[in-house]
Amino acid sequence: MSAPSLRDVMTNPEWLAHRYDPGHDSFHMRAVSRARHAQIPFLTEEYLGQDGQPLILRRADAMAQASTPGPIHFVFHSAYCCSTLLAAAFDIPGIAMGLKEPVLLNDLIGWRHRGAKGPDVARVLDEGMRLLARPFSPGEAMVIKPSNIVNPLIPGIMGLRPQACALLLHAPLDMYLASIARKGMWGRLWVRDLFQKLMLEGMLAPVGIEPDQYLGLTDIQVAAVGWLAQQRQFTMLTEQLGERVATLDSETLVARPQECLTTLTRLFGLVMDEAMIEAIVTGPVFARDAKSGAEFAGGQRARQAQSDRRTHGEEVGQVMHWAGVLAANAGIPMTLPRALLG
């Protein structure tokens, strides 16, 4: 079979703008069908697999042939808060399509940390979002859920897309810390990696943690500081962006999914009636674990929370008290303003 033409690739949204290589100023395009998007939790190599080599296109050539993007909106999050579930819920042919953690945006954060100039990052961010916003069907909006390591780029993203709206999603701190503790070594390594990235962005000092204190923190304290840094950023974003953003916590989403989706579709300007939203909430997306695909039984989240409290309650409780003092001293609210549901 002959290779697709440049125009065919750039006008077909099944060719995902997967990576950006600043060394060669090129986009890596991967063929990902809509059905494949629905099957996997993240758009990473781990889940996309190694089948098929990416098409490597010079950025200028790709943008010269790129089709017109559709509307774009965002679900930004601070991790372990049902964000993958919510992104999956927006696979609604003819109305919206959810993209779950496209790696292209991670590449831009990494590039910035390696010293890329702000205008260069902004230019590729703008063009990358144009590619990610190519709709699968005419009139569809793209709802992008980036990885939370992309959060430092939120002001730039929203500035470049003044018509976009965003949900700022988080888990309550105690649930977040228990999730990290339950995941063992890998969860603890993950929060330390996040901590390091937040440090590079200058987001830790406003929480009240100085560099000479870093090595004295336990893993769960590190997790709490990362959560507080993101909570502070989300608070500032509500002040800066006003009606373009709303906030939501994971437990409200799980307890009131239909109300959350109804209100969120209005924020994103999606035309969906009550029956359509009910079909999503009672359908397979909300009936299985968004990451593993395993069946999600009723009450499972509450039972897991009870188990976590029995196993990790002492450690989490002590860090919760410590984090509460930090938050009070730094003026960081534990409950975010501009709640999606009143």
Secondary structure layout:
Layout: H1 6-10, E1 15-21, E2 26-31, H2 34-39, H3 45-48, E3 55-58, H4 59-65, E4 72-77, H5 83-88, E5 96-100, H6 103-113, H7 118-132, E6 141-145, H8 154-160, E7 166-170, H9 173-182, H10 184-200, H11 219-241, E8 245-249, H12 250-255, H13 257-268, H14 274-281, H15 300-330
Parallel strand pairs: 4-6, 4-7, 5-6, 7-8
Antiparallel strand pairs: 1-2, 2-3
Task: Give a verbal description of the structure.
49% of the residues lie in helices and 13% in strands. It is an alpha/beta fold and 342 residues long. It has one domain: 3-Layer(aba) Sandwich (Rossmann fold). Strands 5-6-4-7-8 form a five-stranded parallel β-sheet, with helices on both faces. The mean pLDDT is 94.
Query: Any idea how many domains?
Result: 1
Strand order, sheet with most strands: 5-6-4-7-8
CATH class: Alpha Beta
**Radius of gyration using CA atoms only:** 20 Å
